[in-house]
Structures are given as structure tokens and as C-alpha cells.
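Bug report (template v2)

What were you trying to do?
Predict the complex of my protein with AFP.

What happened?
Run completed; filing so the output is reviewed.

Input:
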Amino acid sequence: MSTNNTKVLPVGTTLDRYIMHRQYAFAFATGELSQLLRDIALAGKIVHREVNRAGLIDLGGEAGQQNVQGENQQKLDVIADVRFRRALTNGGEVCALISEEEEGIVFTGNDKGKYVVAIDPLDGSSNIDVNVSIGTIFSIYRRVTPFGSQPTIEDFMQGGQEQVAAGYILFGSSTMLVYTTGHSVNGFTYDTSLGEFILSHPNIKSPKNGSIYSYNDGHLKAFSEPIQKYLATCRERQYSARYTGSLVADFHRNLLKGGIYLYPSTSENPDGKLRLLYECYPLAFIAGVTGSLAVSDTEAILNIKPATMHQRAPFYIGAPEMVEELMGYF
Ligand code: AFP
């Protein structure tokens, strides 16, 4: 039950205070989601530390093994996976998680935990060695299996509409945590001198339109005709092409400035590349709250019913008028 605690907290509020404030807005909140968000923030601070000293202590480069997607894991990929797993296990609120880096469900042993988490601990790993932005993406669900029992795949197959919270941490020129519990999207910049995330971007709203487009031009010839035509229009209008290879960075920039990100299906990869549960769903949930749109080839991302943990989906996300125009080309 929501109370009338609608006071807007000012820029400069710490993440902890903000989370508490939101918790008090719900009369029957138990504080577990609040604690879970704090756990994610703590792991984010630790990963921030590792990312920032990676070049100094030989944390760059490959770890010498592949993840479940068949991609070479970077050392920081593995470190981030361990850090988030540990924080989510120690917190006690999470009964299980799935991660881009792990083939199966990771059981935390907290069978009384109310929540499950889907996470990409460090996305954009090809950028690690070259000091370009990378990010963490996460999605939180209330479990559907009974408390006290071992969680199952069913807990993760609820669909994007059932997310109770989602967010990302961008390790960029500064580190930022952006998250939503469905009410508003707020961005917190990490103040390294204080060791605190500080509210810097309250109530983020997407511009209705924009002039930035982000996609991998190397794959252009493999895209379907409608996508190629839409991109030709962007070029004719002299939109700015901006693509880092880190979804979090590209999404964040486009959200603040107005733009569209595209990772289409290709003839070789009909489902595209991006993972539904821990890349597309969380960003689509955030997008929806800001007023932007996230779609796949045929339907809204959040309406796709998942079938497997590491499922992929074609992904188009951005300013609503840009996404609507793209859909017109289909
Ligand atoms: P990696 O983590 O394997 O670098 O993948 C990053 C990513 O999932 C997403 O963040 C990028 O936007 C996209 O893949 C880049 O893929 P391409 O290299 O095919 O453009």
C-alpha cells in the first residue's frame, strides 16, 4: 500500500537515504528489496575499484576460458561475476540468480529469500582492455515458487512485465547507478571521495525524438531490408552515428540525449545477439518508465515470453518517435 509520502528528494541525496525514503512510501514494505538494492550498489563499488585499477594490477585481458555464450571471458568479467554473486548471496534476500557468465541457475542457499536476479555482471567486455565504458545490467523478480523451497527456472521465466526493479551501473567517465522500481528512473553518480552513490539525475525522462543512431555498421549487409532503409534515412538526415560496443553506454547516452540503439536479427543470427533476460528486459523496463520504447521485430520486448535462460532477441530501443518510425518500416 502506497502512503502519501511523495516528497521529491533533492539532487545530492545519498542512494541509501533515497532507498529508505522509497521504502517508507510503502506501508507494508519489509525492507528486503531495499537491502537487495544496497547489495547491488556495494558490489558495484567493488567492481568500480577493480575496473579503475585494472591496468595497474594486470586485470586486463582474457581469463583463458569461455562463458556459456562461447565468448572468451575477460578477467574482469569473472571478477565482476564473483563480486555480484557474493554480494547477492551474503545479503540473504536473493534465493537464486542467473548470470551471463554462468550456464545454470546459481542457488544462493537462501531458500527463504523473496527475490531472484538476472544479471550481466560486466557487459561490453571487448572494451575492458582499451579503457572504454562498460556496464552491469540487472533485473529483479519476486519469486513465484514457494518460500523455503528450492527456486526453479520458473522463477526466471515470468516475463519482463513482472520485473519489480531493474537497473544498470555504467563504468564510464564517472560511475553511475541508474535504477527503477517502476515509479521513476533515477541516476546516482559515484562520489569516490565519499564512497557513496549520490542522486545526480532525478526522474529521468526520455526526449520524444532524437538524432543519434547506434548500431554496428559492420553487420549492415546482413540486416533485413526495412532496417537498412531506416538506417539510410538516418544517414540522409545526417543524424549522428554513435556506437561504443557497450550497450549500457549507448543506451545511457541515447536516453539522456535522444537516440535509438539497434541490434537487429541477421540472416546468420535470426535472434540477434542480445540476451533477453539480463540485457533487453531490464533496459526495456527502464525505458518504459522514462517514456522511451523497446521493441523486437514483431512485438514489445516486455511482451516476449521467455523460453530459455540465455535466450536472445533482436532489440531496438530509444526515443519513442524514433522507434515508432522504425516500426513503420517493418
Ligand atoms: P560483449 O560483452 O561480448 O563485448 O558484448 C557486448 C554486447 O552484448 C553489447 O553491450 C553491445 O552493444 C554488443 O554486444 C556489441 O556487439 P557487436 O560487437 O556485435 O557490435
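What did the reviewer find?
The longest helix spans residues 32-52. Residues 71, 123-126, 216, 245-247, 273-274 surround AFP (CB under 6 Å).
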